[in-house]
Amino acid sequence: MKRYCNHPAAYALIFFSAVLLIGCSKGTDQGNAPGSPQDPDATDKPRVALIMKSLANEFFATMAEGAKEHEREHADQYSLVVNGIKDERDLSRQVALVEEMVASGVSAIVIAPADSKALVPALRRAQKAGVVVINIDNRLDAEILEQESVSIPFVGPDNLAGAKKVGDYLAKNRTGDKVLILEGIRTSFNAQQRLKGFQAAMEEAGMEILDSQSAEWEMSKANTIASSMLSEHPEATAILAANDSMALGAIAAVKNAGRTGEVQIVGFDNITAIQQAIREGKVLATADQHGDQLAVYGIEAALQQIADQEKGEDQETPVDLIHKENLDQ
């Protein structure tokens, strides 16, 4: 025989419990739903992806730290996602990073492309998906941009002018007239521009370029190539390296050749190791494109474009000559 509870207090308890359950259910579905107005963690901040080249290169590690510091100082304005590739030549991975960031729903991509041509189609697709794209450090190829019918603002330094400053300083302080050049990746616009800057300075000074080869931005490769060039051209009195990593390789090559103090070396980037080499007289000069701020310039341009909902414009950023006399100023 079944027994039913008819006590008024029991009915009251059941009714009160039901009210609580309904109230909790409503709170879960609406009040605490991610992104709802009542959610204290909800945010409509834009997400900006920074995609760089090799983080093994101190220049890009410095760039990343500068960007992270900027994010900490402007945490209420945007959030940052930092990416880099292991190798300067790993173009497929950088393309994949662009696609991954678009798929993740970022608002903007700020990119230092490993190649001036190969990244353009992926970036065009990113723009088509509604992502703001800002090009920093290495300018994308103008012809390919036109072919792809895409306009991407460049925020960065005049690499030709920076290299010309370095080459001019070498010419004014030279110990000889015969030089060697270590180039960056030849399909990169900044490598092309730095080479032109070096060549222009040497031509104006009447200095002879004995050899010019690409070490693809890499220190170890620069060491090998510089060693070979010094062996083939013992009359060389200077090496112009298109970045500081290659300048470090040149320092080792000069030392191994027993020519420290005889062969002058210049670089480009002003990384910490080169600053010390300048103090020690192993490197004559370098160019500072303010790597700690370069990504910041791009991020600020991206945020401005998001706010204005209009296409951004190119912005030239500083590049300064660094040598022993002004290094610690």
Automatic annotation (TrEMBL):
InterPro entries documented for this protein: Bact_Solute-Bind_Prot2, Peripla_BP_I, SBP_2_dom
Signal sequence bounds: 1-27
Coiled coil, from the record: none
PROSITE patterns in UniProt: PROKAR_LIPOPROTEIN
Domain (Periplasmic binding protein) ranges: 48-308
A Pfam family matched in the record: Peripla_BP_4
Intracellular or extracellular location(s): Cell envelope
Region of interest called Disordered, as start-end residue ranges on this chain: 308-329
PANTHER family for the chain: ABC TRANSPORTER PERIPLASMIC-BINDING PROTEIN YPHF (PTHR30036:SF7), D-XYLOSE-BINDING PERIPLASMIC PROTEIN (PTHR30036)
Protein name: D-ribose-binding periplasmic protein
Taxonomic source organism: Roseimaritima multifibrata
